[in-house]
Amino acid sequence: MVTKLIILLVIVVGVVAAAQLMRLYELSSKMRKTGEHDITKRENRLNAGLMLIFMFVLFGGFIWLIFKFGWVGRGEAASVHGHELDWLLNLNFFIIIAVFFLTNFLLFWFAFKYVKKPGIPAFYYPHNNKLEMVWTVIPAIVLAVIIIFGLRSWNKVTDAAPDEAIVVELFSKQFDWTARYSGEDNKLGKFDYKLTEDTKNELALMTTASIQLAIENMQSGLTGIDSLEAQLNDRSRIYPPEIRDAKRTDLENKEKLIRLLYQMKAKHDPSIDKWAEDDFIVKDTLYLCKGQEYEFNFRSKDVIHSAYFPHFRAQMNTVPGMTTRFKFTPDKTTEEMRVARGLDEFNYMLYCNKICGGSHYKMKMVIVVLEKDAYDAWANLKMKGKKDASGAWVVEPATFGHTFNKSDEAPVEAAPAPEENEGEGEDEANAEAEGTEGTPVEPAQ
Ligand SMILES: [Cu+2]
Question: What is the pTM of this model?
């Protein structure tokens, strides 16, 4: 407190002293019979020289920063379109830096060269049409070139992906990423937020079984309609009015929702269940294949996030209620990039680049880019799993259908089914579909 008071006092005294000094200067110039605005030749030349010195310090500092921190500090791009984007960014930088040097040189050089000289009046030069044209048309042309190139590149990375592109969904929520690969059919299963089930169907995928599960949860789950009705009808319980109202509103909303779910069930075509059931979900690491094009579909559960792949030069907002897209082709494996950068620990990363809440900084995912053989082996293991000689699962396939089954603890029933149909992808999917249809009903019995 005392130190603060002293600091305040020093500031006040400083201001008073400065005011007194100004007053002294005014008085002394009056005595010298020159106005305080009259500046001597010496002062003018000093200022002109300082202008030049400032220009050299500014340019020198700029060049020093580029040498110290690198051209733009991004490192080499690891995707096909990334090189094009880097080229475009470099073009922008060249233009900006050239204009920066030119305009700043003119600004400081003119200030130096045309320093006030006694007896030489300022040259009156109010207007020049030619000059106006030059500095309107040239920037317009440069801007048009930048925008046309930029739009072309942007359209390339956001327009529809070819059929060969692997479709991967990136699902964002506070505070992590979940990737869903589209599986063998390369088709992502449909989804609807009303089907969200925190443990069994986090991504709200739409299948006959998941709709049924959602209806059951809504009707007879822990906080379902049955339980709410029982609570409200129980005469032995007395609720404060606001709690009773809250429960009533909750009940009304759930009754509306369950009607929507029944409509969804009636409209649902069971033949598209397999789109979802062969999808597989990964949480920790996103595996990609070098030279393979990927179409990423982005979803968000809660707030706007932004999927940021700095090494692949890609970024896209993930917006609740809509799907955004981006496609790219990795062109360097993680291993190659480690060698190129001389860093054994290097990893590609997916970050969230939108401040989305308290643990925003934690929201990231490692990306591993593999050669085709290694990637195919991994994807096969995920899609089909692996069995030992006795037919027991060594690695279970990580399909959506299986994660669905696993939490119901029914792998015994599910295991023999794919074995009988080995080699026939479609039948396998159907067998799994049957498995998932049966299981969620069991707990209700
Ligand atoms: Cu986020």
Answer: 0.70
Question: Is 249 or 221 the better-scoring residue by pLDDT?
Answer: 249
Would you list the domain boundaries of the chain?
37-158
CA distance 431 to 425: 10
Residue 359 DSSP class: T
Distance 354 CA to ligand 1 centre (A): 6
Cα separation, 404 vs 201, in Å, equals 7
As given in the structure block, the two tokens for residue 52 are 């030049």
> 320 C-alpha to center of ligand 1: Å?
12
Q: Does domain 37-158 have CATH number 1.10.287?
A: yes
Give residue 300 CA to ligand 1 midpoint distance, Å.
9
Q: What is the rounded CA–CA span in Å between residue 188 and residue 218?
A: 26
H or E stretch at 288: strand 285-289
- Kindly provide the b/e burial profile for residues 229-241, where b requires at least 16 CB atoms within 10 angstroms of the residue's own CB: eeeeeeeeeeeee
pLDDT digits (tens, 9 = 90+) for 36-66: 667 778 888 899 999 999 999 999 999 998 8
Tally of CB atoms within 10 A around 442:
10
* 238-280 confidence digits (pLDDT tens): 888 888 888 889 888 888 888 888 888 888 887 877 787 778 8
Q: What is the DSSP string of 204-227?
A: -B--HHHHHHHHHHHHHSTTSHHH
